[in-house]
Fold:
Amino acid sequence: MKTILVIEDKKEVRENITEILKLAQYRVVQASDGRQGVALARSVGPDLILCDIMMPELDGYGVLHILAKDPNTARTPFIFLTAKVAPEHLRNGMNLGADDYLTKPIDNIDLLAAVELRLKKVEQMNQPVEQPGLADFLNALHQVDGCPYSTLRYSKKQILYAEGDTPANLYYIRSGQVKHVKTDASANVVITALSGAGDFVGLPGLLSDVPCTESAEVLHNAEICLIPQAELLTLLTSHADIGAYFMRLLASDVRQRDERLLKLAYQPVRKRVVEALLLVYRKFYSLPDDLVITPLGQDVRSAPFMTLSRENWAQLVGASMETVIRVLSDLRAEGMIKLSGSQITLLDIDRLTRLKH
Structure:
């Protein structure tokens, strides 16, 4: 019989949840506050924890933070009970390692389904023969249903993590776009890298286990898988092919960032603007190699428009917004791009490519 720890300060809510779980043949242990919940989690060793967020003295975030640092409870499935569903609350909980959220008032069917799903995933992860190699691991990240990791939808301008945050997850982008930014003491911002579908975000900070040295912000609506740090480290140490794969990703990322820093330091602004246009195009909008790039109007597929704010272009180029706008206007006058609000269409990619060299 599986044991579930329910941490909830409101007696009526706690007893209602307990009654439903007992009817479903679970053993239930109750705690009326966060401190008692931590003590019971350590002494009882539950198979799953249901925990309210808003509690006096020690709230749900504090409970999760403490238990996540304890090797004996770090891998115990943890589901938050909350009346708050704002994106920032979801991000806080998921960054700490929460597996799921249940919104009050809690539907009995939703409660039992969430508990059963999390317990099944733990059983699957505890079967050594089922541990994935690299191919299985990457395939699991693409699964809409059955993925062993939590998946969240992020809106434009939402922050995955900020400079100074303690790394907690590796982020896998299923869809959408993310920018990596650094801010200096004078509040100047530069985009250091771009990530899109199929990319992993946050790897260097997780491996070095130091506070994040940059922020990651969503450029366009994204669907992102969160892989907890503890599970990532287990994969890296248990599977040589996964470890080698992430080492190659890390080496490639360092090389690309070094090349970009050199260009930002020594290239004139015009070349940096062209470099930024081609970087965004190739990262997010490039076409198959066998398509010929022709002027706008001959083949709509060959001249996709790119949507990015002028502020983002300036941060990507590493120059003032006025300077970037002036260079873009020059490129438009020369017939290489088309401007329409925040949309930029590349009309002559071959010529732009020659300009950056």
User: Anything to note?
Assistant: Residues 287-303 have pLDDT under 50 and may be disordered. Residues 248 and 254 are 10 Å apart (CA to CA). The first helix runs from residue 11 to 23. The first strand starts at residue 3 and ends at 7.
